[in-house]
Design brief:
single chain; mainly beta; 7-stranded antiparallel beta sheet; 9 strands
Length: 84
């Protein structure tokens, strides 16, 4: 199955191999069975460098780059030590 849609701001591609990809000039957001992944840079072989954003284990904080977090009920830990 291959489906492609074009929009003013980019392209949406759905394939059985790559999953659902939102492709723009600045990068790609991809959703597949094992999570949501992002990329905005390539390596020396011109291959995309993918970063996991949301996986079954949770949301990676490094993927949050804008907005506000309500941390009222959040505990921040480093190993066994609670940090504030």
């Amino acid at each position: 199955m291959n489906i492609d849609y074009s929009f003013n701001t980019g392209k949406l591609s759905i394939t059985s191999e790559a999953g659902i990809q939102s492709i723009t000039d600045t990068g790609i957001v991809c959703m597949r069975g094992d999570g949501i992944f992002t990329t905005n840079s390539k390596d020396e072989n011109n291959e995309w460098i993918w970063k996991g954003a949301v996986t079954p284990e949770g949301v990676k904080a490094e993927a949050i780059t804008r907005g506000t977090l309500n941390i009222r009920d959040m505990v921040i830990q480093s190993g066994d030590d609670v940090r504030f």
